[in-house]
Design brief:
single chain; mainly alpha; elongated; 2 strands; 2 domains; 10 helices
Length: 238
């Protein structure tokens, strides 16, 4: 059921991505800027459907082969998830470097040219109050800058025209208990943060929720492996 749901959502995002953005807002746009979430959901949904079929059909037909395949696939996914979580926690800097290598060239080539890609980034930068992946310099020598001779207005707190001087000197709004205050320029510069740092901060803020969801998924996977192995062993007794 969950595989079918993810598959359906993936197809929906692929066919009508704009309505997906409108419903789920900044969080979805933050994800969409890094990966093609439609294809990701379709692949994950299809994999879950296959795994679910192996488990259900193997239990119904009392097939040791299918039950062992089900157990092995869930175990591989569980190990991969644990490894990904460890890498994400320990190697945040490496993750940023890898994303910069993937996303920054896309920003330079596609922002201002591809309408959907541009809309996704505009929503992200506006809602999250950030500029580029690292900062406004991600747009140097980009298609958008060479075409318009300006940076996105989000890099200058929505002021236009947004040039490098204004992007460097513009005060950054800091939200404290819902009230916007100003952070005035200082000798080291007071730049609008990149979206990576802002999104990372959002993840840290909601770490409890994310951890709870991850723990729930892990518990389900462990339960699925335990049940499949129990059935496998019972078939040996028969």
């Amino acid at each position: 059921l969950s595989g079918g749901t993810l598959l359906g959502v993936g197809i929906w995002v692929k066919v009508d991505g704009e309505s997906f953005l409108n419903i789920f807002g900044a969080l979805s746009s933050s994800i969409l800027q890094v990966v093609n979430v439609a294809y990701l959901l379709i692949v994950i949904g299809a994999i879950l459907l296959v795994i679910g079929f192996l488990g259900c059909y193997g239990a119904q037909k009392e097939s040791k082969c299918l039950l062992m395949m089900f157990f092995s696939l869930v175990l591989i996914i569980f190990i991969a998830e644990v490894a990904a979580a460890v890498v994400a926690l320990v190697f945040t800097g490496l993750a940023k470097t890898l994303l910069a290598g993937l996303v920054t060239p896309l920003l330079k080539e596609q922002y201002g040219k591809d309408r959907t890609f541009t809309e996704i980034w505009n929503i992200t930068m506006t809602e999250v109050h950030c500029c580029g992946l690292n900062n406004y310099t991600d747009f140097n020598n980009s298609y958008f800058y060479e075409t318009n001779l300006t940076y996105p207005k989000q890099c200058c707190n929505m002021q236009e025209p947004c040039n490098s001087t204004l992007a460097e000197e513009t005060a950054v709004q800091v939200w404290i208990w819902g009230i916007a205050t100003s952070c005035y320029p200082h000798p080291c510069g007071c730049l609008l943060q990149g979206c990576f740092e802002e999104i990372l901060e959002e993840i840290r803020t909601n770490a409890g929720v994310a951890g709870g969801v991850a723990a729930g998924i892990a518990a389900l996977e462990i339960a699925a492996m335990a049940v499949s192995m129990y059935l496998y062993c019972r078939l040996d007794e028969k």
